[in-house]
Amino acid sequence: MLKRFFKFILKILVCLIILSVGFVFLYKWVPVPITPLMLIRGVENHQNGNKFGWKHDWVSLDKISKNMQLAVICSEDQNFLKHNGFDVEAIGKAFENNKKGKRIKGGSTISQQTAKNVFLWPERSWLRKGLEVYFTFLIESIWTKERIIEVYLNSIEMGPSIYGTEAAAVYWYNKPASKLSQYEAASIAAILPNPLKFKARPASNYIERRKTWIVRQMGYFGKLDYNKEDGK
């Protein structure tokens, strides 16, 4: 009886692995139509008496301003083109900061955030973190860096019921993502730590300071070249 039970569990695990790998391969080429967070936020809005739904317009990477691409890399993960999904140094710094103070600082890379946004749920738990590591390994192995940033910029929450750069550009600046200026891109990138609390426009003093810092980092970073990515 016990042996049969373990065989059953093993079959389920194998099926889940095959299914997860299949979805990662599918999303290597196919636009991601919906994410778990979109559904969760939609249900929360409905429960609060608001309309169920969200704004999400997928566009290819060549229709997203290089300013926007560079702004999120400089804001969220400056080693994005160098690491294989995990920035060990940043994780170590985050761990030390969290031990010293009450404020929780994460060390998640853009790859990890993409894995979480597309395949998982936002709740903090060891199970979710473990699955995040698994999916990060998969997308770094199967996708290119360009595909990871493309999916990231089309899936991340960038305002109230706003997902992806195209919808965010229209919402905050009434223009397509391809037309975002350096400062406009930096202002959207600046709110990513908490897009439901912060506003890209009009920006608070805190967001203005973050925006100025991001623009400065963009200048230091230089030209964005995905052909320099390691291991691809």
What does it look like?
There is one protein chain. With 232 residues, this protein is mainly alpha-helical. Helices cover 58% and strands 3% of the residues. It has helices at residues 2-26, 36-47, 66-76, 88-100, 110-119, 126-142, 145-155, 165-173, 182-190, 205-221; strands at 55-56, 157-159, 162-163. Strands 1-3-2 form a 3-stranded mixed sheet, with helices on one face. α9 crosses α10. The radius of gyration is 19 Å and the shape is globular. The termini are far apart.
Architecture blueprint of SSEs:
Elements: H1 2-26, H2 36-47, E1 55-56, H3 66-76, H4 88-100, H5 110-119, H6 126-142, H7 145-155, E2 157-159, E3 162-163, H8 165-173, H9 182-190, H10 205-221
Parallel strand pairs: 1-3
Antiparallel strand pairs: 2-3
Question: Tags for this entry?
Answer:
single chain; 232 residues; mainly alpha; 3% strand; globular
- What is the molecular shape? globular
Average of the residue pLDDT scores = 89
Tell me the number of helical segments per DSSP (H or I, 4 or more residues long).
10
Q: What is the CATH class designation?
A: Mainly Alpha
Query: What is the terminal-to-terminal distance?
Result: 47 Å
Q: Strand content of the residues, in percent? A: under 5%
What is CATH's topology name? Penicillin binding protein transpeptidase fold
Topology, number of strands: 3
Identify the CATH architecture.
Orthogonal Bundle
CATH superfamily label: Biosynthetic peptidoglycan transglycosylase-like
Uncertain regions spanning at least 5 consecutive residues: none
**Biggest sheet layout:** 3 strands, mixed
Q: What is the domain total for the residues?
A: 1
Strand order of the largest sheet: 1-3-2
The class by helix and strand makeup works out as mainly alpha
Helix content: 55-70%
**Structural Rg:** 19 Å
